[in-house]
Design a protein that fits this description.
Order of helices and strands: HHHHHHHHHHHHHHHHHHHHHHH
Structural class: mainly alpha
CATH topology: Amino acid/polyamine transporter I
Number of helices: 23
Shape: globular
Number of domains: 1
CATH class: Mainly Alpha
Number of strands: 0
Largest sheet: none
Strand content: under 5%
Helix content: over 70%
Length: 520
């Protein structure tokens, strides 16, 4: 048999193609019946955030508690791959890949965008554009991109990592991982199939709207630099360039492609924000960020359980609960990708690096970019609200960056950083769904190149269709929110599976040690 054909035969066609077709079908329906479908999905998303939002908040905070228990409990020293396993990547590459997979271009977008919104529509009944509003602006930005968010991202990665590296399982379908709870009979039934399709849809749906944000940002930047109108055609061209770039990264693979890109991406982005810190209002940014961290520490549980039932402002539903629901949708992408790169690392190391390290990285970006933005608003140095009203959020973000000393140069670097950030996230998503749609994949293997390239084109095409069919973005965004409750159920099932595996394997280990001790 031809080698290439035998490899392609390893593709789970029954899962891959229906997943792609399902997402495209939803988009086409959204384009054909935009008002009807968008109204239905928006109503469903509204019900989830307003009526069931408290459940999402409780589970989100519970993820932090679970990871804390795993990081400092008796299983903290469990090494993914076994006690003799050696990490495949340097610690820096490992940390950077997790960070860039989770943040995307959304970090630099919302680091400036969130404070602009919060100044105008602040929480807790604060007056718009007031001192109290500015006090909460960066605090909430940091809160949304910090410990709870990263805990949601990381939790499914631990069962996946143990399943792949320690239990040596080669079938990476989510339903297969959940067999310990749902049973083998249901794993191969319609229930297992539905779990897999649903999980992939969450990843593709969530990311397609993130791509829309990135395309808006980059097209606004091109308009500022070269006076190119941000038309749909320009945005589609940007997505097309992503597809080509993704393909190159996929050809290079995980070690030579994604890891190198992640390193370069972080170095460029850190260099940019370091310059803004030095060239901008340095003292204000540092003090403002410090004060915001204090606000979070002092009000952490208040922010975590804030539902605003009396005033009914909708702030926690539109922001906090939305963020948590959005993060839950990335179960497959973050779970499989982090699991793959965690080989040879201890449980505690993975948890602390991802949750603490990535949270600190977000703190730097949000504190510096957000602090610069709020200073411009409070001192009236920059007409940021006018930019927002006249140019939209993406245009306002570009103008804020262009206002930095040597603005044209900084803006170019900013756009490059945003481009690379969305690329690293996209390659991570592509790699993860490629792993899941491969029938059998060993711990040290990459998905077949053909599978990676197919998903590369498919994910890019789905994002492109979402841009062309404007109504589809809002529909899929709402559907991603609706997917949160089922995703939460899957989170719980995955955690139960991990606990059962650890208990079984830990007992076997203790028995072996007892036998060894008796023989000695």
């Amino acid at each position: 048999m031809d080698k290439k054909k035998s490899r392609f035969a390893n593709v789970d066609h029954k899962l891959m193609w229906p997943s792609i077709i399902f997402v495209l079908a939803v988009m086409i329906l959204a384009a054909l019946f935009p008002e009807t479908l968008n109204a239905c999905t928006a109503k469903g998303a509204g019900f989830i955030t307003h009526q069931l939002g408290f459940i999402i908040q409780i589970v989100a905070l519970g993820c932090v508690g679970v990871l804390g228990w795993l990081a400092f409990g008796k299983y903290s020293s469990v090494r993914f791959g076994g006690k003799d396993a050696k990490p495949e990547f340097s610690f820096i590459s490992f940390a950077f890949m997790m960070f860039t997979a989770g943040v995307g271009a959304g970090l630099v977008y919302w680091a400036i965008g969130e404070p602009i919104y919060y100044m105008q529509w602040p929480p807790y009944g604060a007056e718009a554009m007031s001192v109290e509003a500015s006090t909460w602006s960066i605090a909430y930005s940091i809160y949304h991109w910090n410990i709870i968010g990263w805990s949601i991202f990381l939790l499914p990665a631990l069962p996946y990592a143990y399943y792949l590296h320690n239990r040596k399982k080669t079938n990476l379908r989510l339903s297969a991982l959940c067999t310990e709870v749902i049973g083998e009979k249901h794993e191969s039934s319609w229930l297992g199939y539905l779990i897999n399709i649903f999980a992939i849809f969450g990843t593709l749906g969530a990311f397609s709207t993130s791509m829309g944000v990135s395309a808006d940002l980059l097209s606004a930047g091109l308009n500022k630099l070269f006076n190119i109108e941000p038309t749909v055609g320009v945005k589609v061209s940007i997505v097309a360039s992503f597809i080509i770039f993704y393909a190159i990264i996929m050809l290079l693979g995980l070690k030579k492609g994604i890891s190198k890109l992640a390193n370069m991406c972080v170095y460029i982005a850190v260099g940019m924000i370091a310059f803004i810190l030095i060239a901008g209002p340095t003292s204000f940014i540092i003090n403002y960020t410090t004060d915001s961290v204090g606000m979070i520490l002092n009000n952490f549980f208040r922010m975590s359980f804030y539902t605003d039932p009396v005033m009914g402002s909708g702030f926690p539903q539109d922001w906090t609960i939305f963020y948590w629901a959005w993060y839950f949708a990335y179960l497959v992408m973050m779970g499989l990708f982090i699991a793959k790169v965690s080989y040879g690392r201890k449980m505690k190391e993975v948890i602390l690096t991802c949750v603490v390290g990535s949270s600190f990285g977000c703190l730097l970006f949000l504190g510096i970019l957000g602090g610069y933005t709020v200073d411009g608003i409070l001192t009236n140095k920059l007409p940021i609200m006018d930019w927002f009203n006249n140019l939209g959020l993406a245009g306002a973000i570009i103008e804020v960056i262009a206002s930095v000393p040597f603005g044209a140069v900084v803006l170019v670097i900013f756009l490059i950083a945003a481009y690379f950030l969305i690329t690293t996230t996209m390659t991570s998503a592509t790699y993860a769904v490629s792993m899941m749609t491969t029938k059998n994949l060993k711990s040290n293997e990459d998905p077949d190149l053909a599978v990676r390239l197919i998903w590369c084109v498919a994910v890019g095409a789905i994002s492109m269709v979402a841009l062309l069919m404007g109504g589809a973005i809002n529909t899929i965004k709402s559907m991603a929110i609706i997917s949160a409750p089922p995703m939460i159920i899957l989170y719980i099932i995955m955690f139960i599976c991990l606990l059962r595996w650890l208990k079984k394997d830990y007992k076997i280990k203790e028995r072996l040690e007892e036998v060894s001790g008796d023989n000695n």
